[in-house]
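Exercise 7. Given the encoded structure of a 203-residue chain, write a plausible sequence.
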């Protein structure tokens, strides 16, 4: 594990605990970071990135946004997915944060990343890992091969070394039980508002 080099973080996290536990790594990818944290990491000789994803995006949409952030290109939410949930298929275009991710180094070793998500970042990272490794059969069946995003092809199990969740909402949360009777109305209002604003809806 000491040979690992890159970390991608999603969601807020307890920075001090993270810094203590992962201080031996030399490349870290943060979802958000203050200038002070950046200075601390730089003094430790750590390289890190800061890929932000949509605050109103679901796990699927955040995964698509993360892929575009890391590999570069235009966000593709999927032909089948976007038609199913009624929002635009394509989002913003980004320059790659890690253009060499998935390629081999001088020793022939694949350049991998490590995923670490807190709160909803946990489920989002699990979804991202699932798509990178397994792809999406639904998108593969509903999209022409020459129009299919590389994310939905899968087959990249060697690109991710680990996926870790810190207090991730992997089994839901109690507020859901309290709000359950109101969910249909809230969802309808949310979908309508986000679609009107041209944003993606929750997956």
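Solution.
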């Amino acid at each position: 594990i000491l040979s690992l080099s890159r970390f991608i973080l999603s969601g807020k996290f307890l920075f001090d605990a993270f810094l203590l536990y992962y201080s031996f790594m030399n490349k870290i990818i943060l979802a958000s970071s203050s200038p002070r944290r950046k200075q601390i990491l730089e003094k430790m000789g750590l390289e890190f990135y800061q890929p932000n994803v949509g605050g109103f995006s679901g796990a699927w949409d955040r995964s698509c946004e993360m892929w575009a952030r890391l590999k570069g290109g235009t966000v593709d939410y999927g032909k089948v997915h976007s038609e199913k949930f009624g929002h635009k298929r394509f989002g913003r275009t980004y320059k790659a944060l890690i253009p060499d991710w998935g390629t081999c180094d001088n020793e022939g070793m694949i350049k991998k990343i490590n995923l670490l998500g807190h709160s909803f970042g946990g489920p989002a990272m699990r979804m991202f890992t699932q798509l990178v490794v397994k792809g999406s059969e639904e998108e593969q069946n509903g999209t022409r091969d020459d129009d299919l995003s590389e994310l939905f092809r899968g087959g990249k199990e060697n690109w991710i070394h680990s996926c870790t969740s810190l207090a991730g909402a992997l089994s839901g949360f109690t507020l859901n039980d309290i709000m359950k009777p109101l969910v249909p109305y809230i969802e309808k209002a949310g979908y309508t508002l986000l679609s009107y604003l041209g944003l993606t809806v929750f997956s």
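Remark. The longest strand covers residues 160-166. Students should compare their own answers with the one above.
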